[in-house]
Amino acid sequence: MRNSKCYLYSALSLLMYLLVSGCTIIRPVAPDLSQVPAVVDGKRFSYDAYERVLDTFVTGNGLVHYSKLRSDRISLDLFYAMIAAISPDSHPHLFPSKNDRLAYWINAYNSTVLLGVVEQYPLSSVTDVKAPAVLFFFPDQSGFFFFQRFVYGGSETSLYFLENTVIRQRFDDPRFHFALNCASRSCPKLPRIPFYPAMLDSQLDAEARKFINSTENVRYDHSTETLYLSAIFDWYEDDFLDWLREKHHNGQPSLLAYLLLYAEGELKTSLTEHTVTKIRFLEYDWGLNDAKK
Q1: For 55-74, what is each residue's pLDDT tens digit?
Q2: Mean pLDDT of 116-120
Q3: CB 3.0 to 4.6 Å from 194: which of 47, 198, 248, 282, for a disulfide?
Q4: Rg for the chain, CA atoms, rounded
Q5: For residues 231 and 281, is the Cβ–Cβ distance under 8 A?
Q6: What is the tens place of the pLDDT at every residue in 193-236?
Q7: How far apart are CA 64 and CA 126, in angstroms?
Q8: How far from chain centre, in Å, is Cα 31?
Q9: Rounded to whole angstroms, how far apart are CA atoms 134 and 286?
Q10: Residue 231: how many CB atoms within 10 A of its CB?
Q11: Domain map of the chain by residue range?
Q12: Separation between Cα atoms, residue 146 and residue 271, nearest integer Å
């Protein structure tokens, strides 16, 4: 038994070593941060550099000109230098409200997804970024979301942990699922402006309505009484149901009840006037949200 424990400890130690050593850390390479007003005068965090990225390289339907961004990444590198140095954890005085903090983490996630693609481009999918060969049993997406690490406020972490241990654990508003963009075709569309603290509630509301009322993500089949939903509702179902229980005191929450908060037009009519007997989740398209495709 004692030897078995030693072998188990050795195996776990080896796995941890492989996990850590297999990670790629992407570090900032931008100009001196003294150029950034938020650092110099203590004002709230600035999204100007990120706004330039979105306005220049993102299309009206949420696709990204990655090839152009790769050749002109000054603003993206500057914004990454900012978030690498500053976060709500490292500089809490710059993020006094919950909206300040959530807006930061959404923008930090989306911008480092862009950076992760640019660092690896050309790609046809984020699944092209592979985990270390010895860890072949990890999911296809793990190379991009788990084994690439970024810096936020001086701390290194992966996109996976940023989403699941920071955003999902600290914020109880599941609308952020419609704001996080994973550089893939089935993701929520990337807006052409950042998420701003003063506008965050209306922006999240707009993204929820946009996502839910798109037939790519939610549609009802009258002939089979089947509701087809984005896999996001499958992966994060508990986030939506827990929010309904807490905020709406709904003792029997359902995905249908959540959808009805944002459904409009034909979708709302279908969900309120017809019976839903089955829910099926749509296959997720991990193809890159590349404007040139």
Answers
A1: 999 999 999 999 999 999 99
A2: 96
A3: 47
A4: 21
A5: yes
A6: 999 999 999 999 999 999 999 999 999 999 999 999 999 999 99
A7: 14
A8: 26
A9: 23
A10: 14
A11: 23-207, 219-281
A12: 37
